[in-house]
Each structure stands twice: as C-alpha cells, then as structure tokens.
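Q: I have two molecules that I believe assemble together. Could you output structure tokens for the complex as a whole instead of separate predictions?
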Amino acid sequence: MTNAEGSEFAPDGALTPAVELRQLRFGYRPGTPVLQVDSLVVPAGESVFLHGPSGSGKTTLLGIIAGVLKADRGEALVLGNDLTRLGGSDRDHLRGERLGYIFQMFNLIPYLSAFDNITLPCRMNSRRMKRLDGSLDVETRALARTLEIESLLGARPGELSVGQQQRVAAARALLGRPDLVVADEPTSALDADRREAFLGLLFESCREAGATLLFVSHDRSLESRFDRALSLPDVNRAPVAA
Amino acid sequence: MLTLDLARRSLRNRLLPSILTVLSIAFSVALLVGIENIRNGLRASFTGTISGTDLIVGPQAGSIQLLLYSVFGMGSPTGNISAEAYEHFQNHPAVAWTIPYALGDSHRGYRVIGTTEDFYEHFRYRGGTPLALAQGDRARDAMDVVLGSEVAERLEYAPGDQIVVTHGMGAAGIMDHDDTPFEVVGILERTGTPVDRALYMTLEGIDAMHEGWEGGVPPAPPSFAPGGEGAAEDDYYAAPPTPPVETDEHERDHGHEHQHGETQTPAGAQDPSLHAHDHDHGGTQITSFFLGTTSRFEMLSLQREINEYRDEPLMAIAPGIALAEMWRSVGYAEDGLKIVSFFVVIVGLLGMLVSLYTALDARRREMAIFRALGAGPRRIIGLLVVESGFLALMGAVIGVALVYGSIFFFQGTVEARFGLLIPIRPLGSLEWLYLGSVVAAGFVLGLIPAAKAYRNTLTDGLSPRS
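A: Yes, here they are, computed for all two components at once.
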C-alpha cells in the first residue's frame, strides 16, 4: 500500500479500518433523520458486502462516506480521516486522491473516450497521479488488460455495452491504487453471466491494487463471495421512507 | 488546462445547441459592431463631403444654410456675392486658391453649378481625395458641361450628348425661360458625395443662359437650336427661392416660347440697369466660394476679416467645424440604433443563459460523476463558466468576423447603391468595450447555471434523480 508522499491525510495503517462510522446522524431537513448509525466498520483490505435495499438510506450513506454529504453529528472516519471535521475542499481532495467510486449505471462522461474517462481522476488530482508506479499510459493499459477492455480504450461510452462500460468504470475507480473502492450496485444492470465475470475482475483488480472494497447491493445472492457482509437496515436506526 | 479541455469536449459533444448559441450571440454582436461601422461610415462620409477647404464664404445668413446649399446641394442660396468681393478675396495674400460656386440652375432635378477650373484643381473630399474625370475633360468653354457620376448614370448621358439646362424666374407669376443646349464634355468619377448629384459648367455658361432673358425680354435671334423641353424655374438668385426639384413638373405644364441666349457675348457687356431682379451681370455673380489659405494660421484672421467685410455682408464658415456641429445635431438617430443593438445583445446573452440552463438537467449525471471523481465546486463551476465564456467569446469573434466579411464582400455594392463607403477599419474603443462586455457577461452569466449545478450535486449526492 503506497501512500503518496506529501499527502496531508492520515496514513493507511493496517490496523485502521477503511471506514468507521460512530454515532452518525444525518438528515436532509432538520427533525427528519435519514441515517442514525451507531457503529459501522469496514476493515482495511477486506471486501465488504453491504446489503442495502432501496429506502434503507444507502445513497445517503455512500454520499457521506464519499465525503459529498456531511454528517450532522457523530464521526465518519474514512481512511483514518474524520470527514465531519474536514472542510468541503479537503473531502473533495481525499475522495479524488484515495477513493474509487463505481455507480450503478451511467458511470462515464459521454464525451470522453474510455481512456480519457479512466484517466480523469488522475488528471484532476495530482496526488492521485503520483500514486501511479509507471506512466499514466502504461498503468492505464495494464489495468485495461486486466479488465479485458484494452481494445476499447479509444471508444466513446455510447459505443460500449453496459458490461464494457462498467469495466471501464471499474478501471477508472482503480487507477492510481485507491485505498477504498466504493461500488454502488455496479452489477444491477448486468445479466447473471456478466455479473459473475465483472465481480471476478473487480475482486482481482482490487486485490492487485490492495484496495478495500465496499460493495453495496440489494441482491443478497452475491453476499457469499465477500469477506464480510453487513446489512444497512440492521445498522440504520432511522425510520427511513423511500 | 484540464477544465479547458473538458469544456471544449463537452461543447463539441453538444455541437448543435452550442453552434446555435454561438450564432445567436454572433448575430447580436454583428448587429452591434455592424451598426457601429455603418455609423462610422456615415460620419466619415458626412464629414468627408468636403475636405481641404479652409473656409466657405457666402452672403451673410445661417451657417448651416450656407453649408447645406454650397456643400450638400440642399436648399437655396441666400443671395449673391459680387464679383468685386470675390476678386478682393481671391487676390487676398492669405488665400491660396478659391472655387467659385454659382448656383441656381438645374437640369431635370439636378443642380447645375457654375464654377471654374479651380473646382477640378482644388476640390477635395474624404481625406484629401481630388476629383478625377471618369470620361472626357473639364468644362472649359461656355457651352461645356461636366456631369457628376450619378447624374450621368441616372440620366444615361455620355460625352458628346447635348443637354438642356433650364433656368427661369418666377417673379409675379410670369414665367420667362430659356433653354440652351450644352454639350457634355466630361463625367466625374464617383465620389459618394453630393458632387455626384450635380452638373458643372463654366461661369460663362451660366451667364450665357441668363443673357437670353435680360430684362425679362427674350432676345432674338436665337443662336442655338431649341432644346427639347421648355422649363420654368424659380430664379435662385432672387429671394425667396424654392427648391429646383419642382422643375420636372413645370416642364410639362408650361408651353412657353423658347428663347435662346447669345452665349458668346461676354457677360460684362450687358447693361446692368436692364437686369431683372437685381440680376447684376457687371461681373460674374456667384453665390458662394470655397477657399484654401496659404497657411492654416491665417484661417481665423481671414475668417474674421471676411465676416467684417464692409462693402458687403459676407460670412465665412470653417466646413470641418460646421460639419461636426451639424453631425452632432442629427446624431440622435444613431443613439436610437445603439440602444436597439444593445438590447439585441442582451437578448443574445439571455438566449445563451437559457440554453445553458436547460442543458443543465441533462448534465446532472455528468456533474455527479465529476463530484464522485473528486471534483470540487471550483471545478464544477469553472467548467460551466468556461463553457459559457467560451460560447460568448466565439460568438463575439464570429460576430466581428461576420461584420468584416460583409464589409469586405459588400463594400463595393453598398457604395454603388447608397453612395456610402464603409471603410475597413480596426475596432474602435467603443467596440472593444462592447465585445469585452459580451465576453465578460458570458462568463458572469455562466455562474448562474454553474452555481445551480453545484447545488444540484450537493442535494443529489452521488445519485442524481435523473
């Protein structure tokens, strides 16, 4: 696990969990809490399945872990940094440098090629660029080879199948060896065969990058492949309505 | 750099709406800059109507009136200048040259100006351009006439044609008239000034016509073949005059006998006492004259001297100052144009705002992706502001290019059709101000959708409700 030189964020020690939420409270409007999480831990280096049906506050939770939303109360430790104490700009930087994020669908910027999409986080964040071992081009191609999309790098997202798009998105999330990869139902748009293939590639790439994987899905059939499984409805005590 | 690159690709991805936005801004900028150019062209052509002339001298009256009838061929002369007074100033040590103007006759609605060869020699327009003959030669003999380009073109005359110059006097309802055939000896090059709309003959030619009706009695025998049409016309030498444009109507209504002047008779030979309406032919009377000084320093003292000339009430005006004064008083129309074009620019910019704003909803997903990849507010807002600023910049550049392209391609047509030369000139400071404001407004207006986009990404979190 290479920690970029000059990073202002807490180093990623083996004992520090990748994500640790304590007494977390969040609501979009005062008086109507959406999230009340007393404790949630994602240990570093593991792959964690978070079961989250729609309406369980999944989107909100991921927003907080990614640092886009800010908790009202409690602690949200991500890679050793308490996001509730960081400013918006610092949270943006932390996310850009050390997080990978995969959406359910429509992961890619439509007017950028697969290559440009994959390299975008590194180009936007110089510290993430520094985390690369080799040149941007070489690393991107190596990763694309692993994800079996090397021949598609010049293509626009519109020319790719959903499965190919998700693999491009995975490559983008993984390039620059992030410490934490957050995947929000990345397989829900894929059929069963594609899903298996994608998961296999994702696990392999995360292992290779040494990244913690937080995988959120409503589909419990995938649960068995992960090191650990958590259920958001069990953790979240807020009365959430869809 | 990355933001610029992303903005460029994003715009290219939405090529058609981007082009439409750019075009709407370009057209409004083109209108703004175009009007400014036409305005400049108008002013240049207006103030360039006469140049190089230091003073215009006429009988004492309003300075605008003197300018109108002597330079623009509008309205009527207010009186005459005696030959003595003209000679006095012609030979004045401070005077380098003079161009006499004898107005009052017309040909089919166009003014006939009696002058000397000094006119071809010394008259300058538009930054010192001298007159040039497109065909033929200057008028030297009494029966010679030189045409302004518009006269030749409209009336389809060529050198060698015989034309009839009409004049008459409309005193007490008695219409005496005299038709004298003149020969076209030359045609002036187009100047785009009122010079094009007049006929030029010698002072002797003017006198020749007038001799025919000395004392209101037609002389006999005629020394010239009768002209095609008789005409009754007001005598501008006597006040109050009426414009010559009415001539054509009179031509058909009156079937008077034709009298023909003895043109070879020297003007001074006539007995002044016989002249009707104070028409003094003791020397050639003129209605005004232009003069150039030997030194510009003499101009003011010469002007004062003319204004205080004791033998005759005269007035001298400096054409440059008078033209600028006149332009200011007719300049209100251009302010109206400016206001209209200003609003067109605002509409163009609002169009850009609308198109950016409507595209925003479709881009919520894109913004969420940028956010997830670590883009902060500065990146999101920067991206949209750069896009709108770029659209405005392109609009401004294309708008200016449109104007200069149009001037380049249609300059000749406009000059031929309207006599208005719109010069290709560098952008003026006012235009730079316009363009700067348009581009700045593009950036500033981009902030509105950008701020909204950033707010979206906050409420959306990472999953926009798309």
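A: One point stands out. Residues 168-177, 213-282 of chain B have pLDDT under 50 and may be disordered.
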